[in-house]
């Protein structure tokens, strides 16, 4: 673990990330010692820094620190946390801020192969997402809604939970983005007021037309999901994972273009 570029495993209790969740994070796949989709992760981090009014971190410095932490790792997860640092009075942030960088490495999750071969089962969460356009899309440290949602089930056969916003719109999974296929339409929720704009979500949207799909950001309801041809979830670690069952609705995995799945599998693990 590195904290501000130095080996350490402690931060001051005055850190605003600890005190108020005043910070951002990125979970990045590592393959053969190299962080994957780095530029996309850094673009989202920079968007978050701008939204929160942080002094921008030096991305080249972060890259060098990431390489140091990831060295020798065949498959792992690199977590980067950037907080506003310490200072300020109460909620009032310090100006200028002095962001704190925390980089740590974690084991690669052992996802069951059948998730990708046969699909996963998902459920609806009772916990709703707040609507806040100033925070929508960025990956900030305030994740209590996701924590509460994930605590709603412990059945191993349920791999993910869908989260709605205050207007009953489907937004995302507890740790993933969602895509719905209807014919050649590839639909994903508009994240203007809630949710995290995932880097693999971005990759899917950019590449969809290569596979004769028409991508669209839209509002989706539970009924929309039940009327779709196929459903899949994405994030930077699991890549693209097809859904086989949502409540009483069963989806055909063959509706998801095999070429798209292979493209995302390769693309989500691309270095740099």
From TrEMBL:
This is Aminodeoxychorismate lyase. Homodimer. One of its GO terms (biological process) is folic acid biosynthetic process. Keywords: Folate biosynthesis, Lyase, Pyridoxal phosphate. It is an enzyme of class 4 (lyase). Belongs to the class-IV pyridoxal-phosphate-dependent aminotransferase family. Pfam families: Aminotran_4. Involved in the biosynthesis of p-aminobenzoate (PABA), a precursor of tetrahydrofolate. Converts 4-amino-4-deoxychorismate into 4-aminobenzoate (PABA) and pyruvate. Its EC number is 4.1.3.38. The keyword Oxidoreductase does not apply. Its cofactor is pyridoxal 5'-phosphate. GO terms for cellular component: cytosol. One of its GO terms (molecular function) is 4-amino-4-deoxychorismate lyase activity. It catalyses: 4-amino-4-deoxychorismate = 4-aminobenzoate + pyruvate + H(+). Pathway: Cofactor biosynthesis; tetrahydrofolate biosynthesis; 4-aminobenzoate from chorismate: step 2/2.
